[in-house]
Queue: 2 jobs
Job 1
Amino acid sequence: MGTVIADTRSALDTWLDDRRGTGLDEPATFVVDLHGALRVAPRQSEHVACAAGQDVLAAGEITFAASDSGYFVQAVSNHSTGYCPDPDCWPAVAAALDRLSMPHPGGFTAALIFRRCTACGERNIVRDDDFACALCDAALLSHWNFYPA
Ligand SMILES: [Zn+2]
């Protein structure tokens, strides 16, 4: 519930109008689906539900704000523990937003490094360049390693 498939700007604007009274300041969940369309849902939504269970080109959290000339993207990240996307998914996000003529920052305002531990399978967020598993302390790979199952 509450997911908008923003295949047009007016669809997204209508969704944002609805949120304006209550939760525009709160980051929303987003994915870019395989058709390149932006899907946005309230933050408590799982990314996988937002994507209707499909693979995605990008995923994360997005915060919109309103100005006199309309809505714009204030902050956007690749924070999705469901998809663990690499920061290099940004071009798909930019393309989806550009298609909607939605102003955006030109890159992730926060970019997270996700790695799957090859020893224990734990999904890690790498912080401070510390490539060690938080669960078992095994070394994490230098490259992104979440491939479609
Ligand atoms: Zn581990």
Note: Residues 9-20 form the longest helix (12 residues).
Job 2
Amino acid sequence: MIPRSIAILDGGLTFLGISGLLVGLRAFREARRSRPRRKTPRERILIAGAGDAGDILLRELQWKFSTTHEVVGFVDDAPGKEDARLRGVPVLGRIDQIRDVARQHRIDQVLIAVPSAGGELIRRITASVTEAKLGVKVLPGIGQLIGRAALLPQLRPVSIDDLLRRKAVEQEAEQVSGFLRGKVIIVTGAAGSIGSQLCRQILCHEPARLVVVDWAETPLHDLLLEIRAGTNESVVVSEMGDVTDAVRMGQIFTKHSPDLVFHAAALKHVPMCEAHVREAIRVNVGGTRIVAEAALAAGAQRFVLISTDKAVNPSSVMGATKRVAEVLLQKMENRGGPTRFIAVRFGNVLGSNGSVLHLFRSQIARGGPITVTHPEMRRYFMAIPEAVGLVLHAAHLGNGGDLFELDMGQPVKIVDLAQDMIRLSGLVPGKDIRIEFSGVRPGEKLFEELYFSAEKVHPTSHPRIFCLRSERVPEKDGAVLLCLNHLNVFPRGTDPVLAGLRDDLLQMLDPAKREGSLA
Ligand SMILES: NC(=O)c1ccc[n+]([C@@H]2O[C@H](COP(=O)([O-])OP(=O)(O)OC[C@H]3O[C@@H](n4cnc5c(N)ncnc54)[C@H](O)[C@@H]3O)[C@@H](O)[C@H]2O)c1
């Protein structure tokens, strides 16, 4: 039998022991928590561009992120800024000194704050910064900056679009708005890259109605989901249909009586058109003829054809069909009537459906190689929103029979584009990802030309839109002959679209001989 005093003593000692342990543990934790932590070093920032955007970025960083980021300095090329200071932060050098400045001042990250800069400057900065293995972010170009919003959240990784960006030009948005506001507008090929961007931009200018025409069900459905959100639903009307179906186009145009028509429906892939010549001629020439006739019959004010630089001295079926479509419109214009026919030519747009950027991106994701057809292959490139903004402007400028050409800047070597894309993915061209040359494909040219030698280039009131005038006679136009030769190979009389076209093309080549067609 244990004496009761011992049991009480044991219980008391156990209680004291456990309590002491708990108090000790707690004291240890508190002591650890209150011990001063080792300071994490602030990220050292260099801002390229000591203009307004750079100044705002500095202010936002100093205001909100001074504990985590330190703006060490600026680099800028502008004369007079060499020894300048913004809010006490010095300009440390010129942009081409960025690598030395970054090394000397132990920079971690470079922020490019020149929204008006062309791609050349961004390419130079990105190349030296990524070589030095520093982080780099860029502000969008002027056209894409969000009004009065803070700049910091708009910083993003450099993309290929930034490298091909062009110096900003003020767009006279008011004139375009006045032209589109309150109009009934039909866009064909609305679900495609150009067509869908036309729809997005047109909707910003308050049309009375936007009628979207395409034969591709799912892309049209996706487009509707996107553009109807946030707008009055009744403004957007969808009409599924094939532009080579004259009856269907007649129905759509009679029903809506459009003021303006943008014709972007087309087959556009050079190799596909080489392989499917008949379809290319049916859609690109026959479809254009049918939609243009429907616009004229409905009394539309303007018809705008989206053309391409591949229509110039065409070496491919695709280019030839687009050239014939241009000639066809000039013939339609000469017929007189309420509709003014306009064509707008431009080179490749960045990131359109099936473009080289998509291909390169997936080849990089697979670990390479990237395939480029030829080391000297060059193309003009423009961002889709910029091209479409200029198309809307050209549509407003056009007087009928006008052929406009958009200023595409400098052509870019495709192999350089491939290397840029590899670098932007944080990899080294030739080491991490190989580039292979696969040979020029049928119908492909090494360089695209922007206009025929017989075409005279005239300026317009917009610095990036030119008007092409030519005394050229269509019978000398190889494109018409090429399409006609192909048409002659197809069995006669089986297809009303092709049968009508044959007459039109013959008439283009020898207007004297054929009466009653397009003249
Ligand atoms: N993408 C470019 O880089 C670029 C550059 C300059 C000019 N263009 C020209 O712009 C036009 C459109 O090109 P895109 O890049 O938007 O092509 P895309 O293939 O993205 O769009 C074409 C659209 O037309 C539709 N379409 C095709 N045939 C049709 C038919 N018979 N009936 C109804 N709809 C039909 C397709 O479904 C598609 O939605 C082409 O004529 C092209 O030559 C394109």
Note: The first helix runs from residue 4 to 34.
